[in-house]
């Protein structure tokens, strides 16, 4: 797969706003590179945590790059407090994204929680496909309205039942209706989706979510099990063929 040159730069925040409970949208003006499914390491501090935080590309155009991130620990808490004009370090694009040129036909995007964020850039890029979105959230749904211009159908579930179907997104999803499936979200959800696709013999890409440290494959913190041995999520992924992922049967 073609590699995009990795750039290191210090930029100024254009906008950083909260769009849902614990979820923020960070916009930086300028020209940036990156394929759907790739990520950047973001850092806005000179103390611990030592390394940046991996954030997937939510949207990219000729004028700006946009990241959607969830408040989790100290690093993202610092990011959430950035204001317009504050400096931030960007390293990227990193990892292997979705091979858009090989994705054809009727496509399902299956996402859970903050895993919905990178799927917007994916949906924007699949212009020659018929795309449906399946998005699951614990309680509050967000950014769903943005997908209406680039997908045919939007299917939403919340565990609380506040929005859409009450339950899990996998209860709405029928893999046999699609030529290909792209998935990103909590590991247990993705394992379920992979298993469903295997049973129906539908090809699937998964974008793995693992804790990362360096972002370039040096530290081996983010390894995941595949049929070809352990792979580095940040370097060999985060996007993998679903058939390559090892699933523990008792985890589903």
Automatic annotation (TrEMBL):
Subunit structure as annotated in this protein's UniProt entry: Heterotetramer of 2 PyrK and 2 PyrD type B subunits.
> Which NCBIfam families does this entry report, sorted A to Z?
PRK00054.1-3
Q: In which pathway does it act?
A: Pyrimidine metabolism; UMP biosynthesis via de novo pathway; orotate from (S)-dihydroorotate (NAD(+) route): step 1/1
Say if the entry is tagged with keyword Metal-binding: yes
Q: Output the GO biological process annotations, alphabetical, semicolon-separated.
A: 'de novo' UMP biosynthetic process
Q: Which family does it belong to?
A: Belongs to the PyrK family.
Q: Source species, please?
A: Clostridium magnum DSM 2767
Classification from the root reads: Bacteria, Bacillati, Bacillota, Clostridia, Eubacteriales
* Binding residue positions for FAD: 53-56, 68-70, 75-76
| SUPFAM superfamilies to which the protein is assigned, alphabetical | Ferredoxin reductase-like, C-terminal NADP-linked domain, Riboflavin synthase domain-like
Q: Which cofactor does it need?
A: FAD; [2Fe-2S] cluster
Cofactor, how bound (note): Binds 1 FAD per subunit. Binds 1 [2Fe-2S] cluster per subunit.
Gene that this polypeptide is encoded by: pyrK_2
User: Ranges for the FAD-binding FR-type domain?
Assistant: 6-100
This chain's protein is named Dihydroorotate dehydrogenase B (NAD(+)), electron transfer subunit
Record's InterPro entries? Cyt_c3_hydrogenase_gsu, Dihydroorotate_DH_ele_sf, Dihydroorotate_DH_Fe-S-bd, Dihydroorotate_DHASE_ETsu, FAD-bd_FR_type, FNR_nucleotide-bd, PyrK_electron_transfer, Riboflavin_synthase-like_b-brl
Tagged with keyword Transit peptide: no
A Pfam family it matches:
DHODB_Fe-S_bind
Q: Which domain of life is it from?
A: Bacteria
Function, in words? Responsible for channeling the electrons from the oxidation of dihydroorotate from the FMN redox center in the PyrD type B subunit to the ultimate electron acceptor NAD(+).
- HAMAP family according to UniProt: DHODB_Fe_S_bind (MF_01211)
Protein keywords: 2Fe-2S, Electron transport, FAD, Flavoprotein, Iron, Iron-sulfur, Metal-binding, Pyrimidine biosynthesis, Transport
Q: Example GO molecular function term?
A: oxidoreductase activity
Q: Which residues bind [2Fe-2S] cluster?
A: 214, 219, 222, 234
């Amino acid at each position: 797969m073609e590699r995009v040159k990795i750039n290191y730069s210090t930029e100024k925040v254009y906008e950083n706003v909260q769009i849902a409970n614990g979820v923020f949208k960070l916009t930086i003006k300028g020209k940036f590179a990156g394929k759907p499914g790739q990520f950047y390491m973001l850092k806005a501090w000179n103390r611990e945590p030592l390394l940046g935080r991996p954030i997937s590309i939510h949207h990219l155009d000729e004028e700006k790059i946009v990241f959607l991130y969830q408040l989790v620990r100290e690093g993202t808490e610092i990011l959430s407090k950035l204001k317009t004009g504050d400096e931030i370090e960007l390293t990227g694009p990193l990892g292997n994204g979705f091979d858009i040129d090989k994705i054809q036909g009727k496509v399902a995007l299956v996402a859970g929680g903050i895993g919905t964020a990178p799927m917007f850039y994916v949906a924007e890029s699949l212009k020659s496909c018929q795309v449906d979105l399946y998005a699951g959230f614990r309680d509050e749904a967000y950014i769903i309205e943005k997908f209406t211009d680039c997908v045919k159908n939007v299917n939403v579930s919340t565990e609380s039942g506040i929005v859409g179907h009450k339950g899990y997104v996998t209860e709405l999803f029928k893999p046999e209706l699609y030529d290909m499936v792209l998935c990103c979200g909590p590991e247990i959800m993705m394992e379920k989706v992979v298993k469903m696709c295997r049973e129906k013999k539908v090809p699937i890409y998964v974008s793995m979510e693992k804790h990362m440290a360096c972002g370039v494959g040096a530290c081996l913190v983010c390894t995941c099990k595949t049929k070809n041995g352990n792979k580095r999520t940040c370097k060999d992924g985060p996007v993998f063929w679903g058939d390559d992922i090892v699933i523990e049967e008792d985890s589903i």
